[in-house]
Design goal:
Length: 309
Amino acid sequence: MKLRDMVNAYIDCQRSRGLSFCSDVKVLRFYCRTMGDVTVEEVRPESVLAFIAGCGPVTARWVQNYRILGRLYRYAIGRGLASVSPLPAQIPRLPPPLTPYIYSVAELERLLTATAVLPKQALTMRTLLLLLYGTGMRIGEALSLTIQDVDLLTRVIIIRDTKFYKTRMVPIGPRLTMVLADYLGHRSQLPLPAGDSSVFLSTRTGHRLTYAWINGQFRRVRQAADIRREDGARYQPRIHDIRHTAAVHRIIAWYRAGDDVQRLLPQLATYFGHVGVASTQQYISITTELMHEASLRFERYAQLEIRHA
């Protein structure tokens, strides 16, 4: 049996179950192209290891590729399409997880100003940055929004088919509503290939922006804003870190207002589309500023307890 036929059978099976797993499909297609026109039995372990490892040091991508291929071969062996798995038996030790970069308010303002380095897409990039910060949505969710998903009258954004295959409704404030309304005036002058089902944030031809293009343009904006990690880290601040920034800034605001953060965390988890509150709780220990606010809260609580002892 050809490797590509086994991969196609696996993809068809997963899609028949209602799964899209677009990122998995890209990896599997690339795996087939890399291995060439071979049968399942002709795939050599050393070739698979080279594919999984890629170039450079071991990263989270190593484990991601390993797990994607692991699911493929478990399916194939279970159905008699393959006799053994050519995957390596051991996973190498990974570097510590990347710590998100939390932008300051001043840095966010510099990013917005720096969008001017993109003369033809400055408005789109500025709108995207404000949308990400104002809603905490994932970059893929923002790029998938259609015009009909952005209801400016009720000030609600509908986010469909999220990372965990759920749809959620995200309320927005008046200032972000004004930003989106301004952009919609510009967007209505561009082609609408699918009417109100056309993407909200678009290229000049009315089509969806790609993640790769956004990342490249954001690097230009970040460099123009002169924002970088000072610790010599390999990874520089990303556009995805704006989502983390939105969460941390919200929690800091709660601490400063004296709100019950633990009670509010489940609401934030729902708003951000987290599968559980544990994903949201990680933000509590992510910055020294947040830890400082938590320490101040505890200090005030301790002093109150002592006075009433």
